Amino acid sequence: MIQLMLAIILTVSPIWPIGPNPLVGDPFIIVNKKTNELAFINEGEVQKVYPVGTGIFDDFTPEGSFSITVKAKDPYYRRKNIMGGSPENPLGSRWIGFNALDTDGRTYGVHGTNNPSSIGKAVSQGCIRMHNEHVNELFDQVPIGTKIFITTSQKNFNELAREQGALH
Hints:
Elements: H1 2-12, E1 28-32, E2 37-42, E3 45-51, E4 54-55, E5 64-73, E6 94-98, E7 108-111, E8 122-124, E9 128-129, H2 132-139, E10 147-151, H3 157-163
Parallel strand pairs: 1-10, 4-8, 7-9
Antiparallel strand pairs: 1-2, 2-3, 5-6, 5-10, 6-7
GO molecular function: glycosyltransferase activity; peptidoglycan L,D-transpeptidase activity
GO cellular component, one term: extracellular region
Domain L,D-TPase catalytic: 27-151
């Protein structure tokens, strides 16, 4: 009986992948390390493009298609034991973690910063930094399970989104 209930829950769960993902109209994020920009795609169009900071070396920010697995307001910075909400916290006001390189969404993420001058540059240890007001805006629009595609490309966001199935 428990196995049947578990099978039903997993089948109808909103984060369980059913068919191609993303579907046109689904929320979708693309990060282009070449331009240090992040595009938020929703309802079949690029809604907004934000400046971001990415890995100081090309291989620090992993490339590929991942899923958002963790979201946190005022995230705690484990590496240096800094409480969320502290002005010294380099993660800023929000954490949107994704499952790159078999991590659980707690190693790589899109997050705010306490160093806004780093945005637009290759400066991080692998995460994607945003201005706090931008990550706060994005945080409210992306549910757990949202796909994020990270690349280094000359293509524009419409081309990349079409290739990933997020736009017609």
